[in-house]
Design a protein that fits this description.
Elements lengths: L1 E6 L3 H13 L5 E7 L3 E3 L4 H5 L10 E3 H7 L3 E4 L2 E5 L4 E4 L5 E2 L2 E4 L23 H10 L6 E6 L18 H16 L7 E5 L11 H13 L3 E3 L4 E4 L3 E4 L4 E3 L2 E5 L6 H6 L22 E3 L12 H20 L10 E8 L2 E7 L8 E6 H16 L9
Parallel strand pairs: 1-2, 1-9, 2-5, 9-17, 10-11, 10-16, 11-12
Antiparallel strand pairs: 3-4, 6-7, 7-8, 13-14, 14-15, 18-19, 19-20
Helix pairs in contact: 1-8
């Protein structure tokens, strides 16, 4: 039986498992998913936890292992040490080497906390449950200066899409949600909110219409924006920029830099910069039985779950087509994102302008926020295997 191994169990890994289950009969494949945790922390909900609702962090743990086992797949809880493409094995820290015929890598990129002097998880963040929870509790205390720092994206120079920020939308989202929460508690006038981004505009990946709206909304709500931020160092109470500007912060919230994957570097599967080089079907350029899905793929954008799900569909359909002597469609990316604005409003963006297209559709209001709530709850109820998949 053909052995398929999927590394990672978040958006990309889960969607990969879904399409393997959807396209193949049980007797065709022996599928194993490997991840450190049987429970997935649903990161898009963590902005709500950070914005004054810490209890939410414990409500968004999804049992992915149970879903895989129901589908007849194997789940191994372990840490992935290395991939050996020559021997077609995955080296784990607590189990014997795991052999594969086809490998899907959906492990994501590593947060680059150490890439800025003084920065670390102790400075707080929003992309992990424990960081969002701590921030959610902290904002219940008196705070005068909240600074939201967005790290750099350390891309490969070979990537045709070049961005400056790791992913800025969670940073702006938590800023808007905190603004609304503080206003509801009559504390907004005594608290400043500042967003730092290495990019030149907010919503760098979203397109010009959304960017213009975000600029106006930040100004309207008195949320300060500093673009082209270059970080010198971080201290316990301040962020120092390279132009010698020092921003006091009695609470920081970070979306950390992303410098690629150490696993790929160690395995010799990266492009020299921590990202996997792939063709239009998400196959490794040198090893055609290895696919990259989500953040780890050079053509993806970190922390955009929709991109990971698109790549999972492309990769598994290409694998299916190869085995069935069929044809499949190449990867055609576009941005689909909803950003909560607070007070029951959101901004929905559908755009391909980042990839050279001309399509931009933006909706602002309660329907946009409701669409994100529906997606989040659907993802939770169906453990990532929803009736409608991108």
């Amino acid at each position: 039986m053909h052995k398929v191994v999927v590394l990672g169990s978040r958006f990309g890994g889960s969607a990969t498992a879904y399409w393997l289950h959807k396209l193949f009969a049980r007797h065709e494949l022996d599928v194993t998913i490997v991840d450190q945790w049987p429970m997935m922390t649903y990161r898009p909900a963590m902005v709500m936890a950070a914005a004054g609702h810490p209890q939410i962090a414990d409500q968004w743990h999804i049992n992915m292992a149970k879903k895989y086992e129901q589908a007849g797949f194997h789940f191994i809880r372990d840490t992935i040490f290395k991939i050996d493409p020559a021997s077609q094995q995955v080296i784990l820290t607590g189990h014997p080497p795991l052999a594969y015929d086809t490998l899907f890598v959906a492990t994501g990129s590593d947060p680059g906390w150490a890439t800025i002097e003084g920065l670390g998880p102790q400075r707080s963040g929003v992309c992990e449950d424990y960081l969002a929870r701590n921030t959610g509790y902290a904002v219940h205390n008196p705070i005068h200066h909240i600074v939201i720092g967005i790290g750099c994206l350390h891309q490969s120079p070979y990537d045709p899409i070049q961005l400056q920020a790791s992913l800025d939308v969670p940073g702006f989202e938590v800023g808007f949600l905190l603004d609304a929460w503080l206003s509801q508690h009559n504390r907004r006038k005594g608290t400043s909110i500042t967003v730092l981004t290495p990019a030149g505009v907010p919503g760098e990946s979203l397109g010009s219409i959304s960017q213009e709206f975000l600029l106006k909304e930040l100004k309207r709500r008195d949320i300060h924006l500093i673009t082209h931020a270059q970080y010198e160092r971080v201290t316990r109470e301040a962020i120092v920029l390279k132009n010698q500007v020092t921003l006091e912060a009695d609470r920081m919230i970070w979306v950390p830099p992303y410098p690629g994957s150490q696993l790929l570097r160690l395995s010799g599967l990266d492009d020299g910069y921590g990202w996997m080089p792939t063709d239009e079907y998400c196959r490794h350029e040198r090893w055609p039985n290895i696919y990259a899905v989500g953040d780890v793929n050079r053509s993806a954008l970190p922390k955009l779950g929709h991109i990971a799900m698109l790549q999972a569909r492309t990769a598994v359909h290409a694998f299916w087509a190869e085995r069935k002597h069929k044809t499949s469609r190449p990867y055609h990316p576009y941005i689909l994102h909803v950003l909560w604005l607070g007070n029951g409003r959101g901004i929905f963006t559908l755009s391909d302008t980042l990839y050279g297209g001309k399509r931009q559709w933006v909706n602002v209001g309660r329907m946009a926020a409701a669409s994100k709530s529906v997606f989040n709850w659907s993802y939770r109820i169906f453990a990532g295997w929803m009736p409608i998949m991108p």
